Amino acid sequence: MEEKVLRNVLEINDLVVSFEMYQKGFRKKKLEVLHSLSLDVKEGEIVAVVGSSGSGKSVLAHAVLGLLPKNATMTGNIKYQGELLTPKERKKYLGREIAFIPQSVDYLDPLMKVGKQVVGVYSSKERQRQLFEKYQLKKEVEDMYPFQLSGGMARRILISAAVTEEPKLIIADEPTPGLNVELAMDTLRHFRKLADNGTSILMITHDIDLAFQVADRIAVFYAGTIVEISPTGDFLAGGKNLRHPYSKAFITALPQNEFQPLKGTQPYAGDLPEGCLFAPRCPKAEIACNGKIAMRDLREGKVRCIHAT
Fold this sequence. Notes:
There is one protein chain. This protein has 309 residues and is α/β, with parallel strands linked by helices. The protein has a domain at 216-309. Helices cover 26% and strands 26% of the residues. It has 9 helices and 12 strands. It has helices at residues 57-65, 87-93, 114-119, 125-134, 151-163, 181-196, 208-214, 232-236, 245-252; strands spanning 8-22, 28-42, 46-50, 72-80, 83-84, 98-101, 169-173, 200-204, 217-222, 225-231, 296-298, 301-303. The strands form 2 sheets. The protein has an 8-stranded mixed beta sheet, sandwiched between helices. Helix 6 (181-196) packs parallel to helix 7 (208-214). The longest helix is centred in the middle third of the chain and has 16 residues, at 181-196. The two termini are 31 Å apart.
């Protein structure tokens, strides 16, 4: 029997995002924060994006959703179900087929009761109450305003609002902070159930241990680009199955592994090295690493490194 080929629901090709910034003397400068980034999420798949703080993970989510500020410039292309995700297409799909779980609870309308915010335009009161019960929110919470909520309650409201329509694509930017471990894991199990029923999920998270439980693939971010995309099983097996030196160091630094910190710091977007962005910290760096390093296929994954085998 032929294996079913899953189609890409989200496809990001050679994405570059820059911000126009003012320097001393009111001189303008473009600061590139995402560099030649490519990523796809297939039908019914959860792809977890992991990496250190400040690597540009949230900028990726905002670029997909058209939420970049006015001083941002974007090149490359983003496709949804094979079609370019233009501003017109985003308007048609956002809130229905494409849902967003933002990192900041400030996305809640401070002047509207949260129950109404979850019902929105397309859902029902019955569905809202089902979700509140699922996420352990009491009935009286629906009549509260955002300022009356704890951080964890607000997070659960945002998740409820995102999944109310059972969308085809969810962009989740740090969906679990403020939740206890049990509720965070229950949320991710709900994501897994949605994915098993066909929903595609791009999940940006620092809770890598939780991501390991539900993600199909892991994309590793470093200094504004993706250095490796691999099946989750390769990460669970430890550094031996990974491809990029940073991915191996990232896993080795986890408490349950060797807990070995990586020397050096991630480069600032305004002062990036030539070629491989990880080269200044890499023990395998050589002159060839100063050239352009493209993402390539390797052992059922992808890697941006000339030394990977």
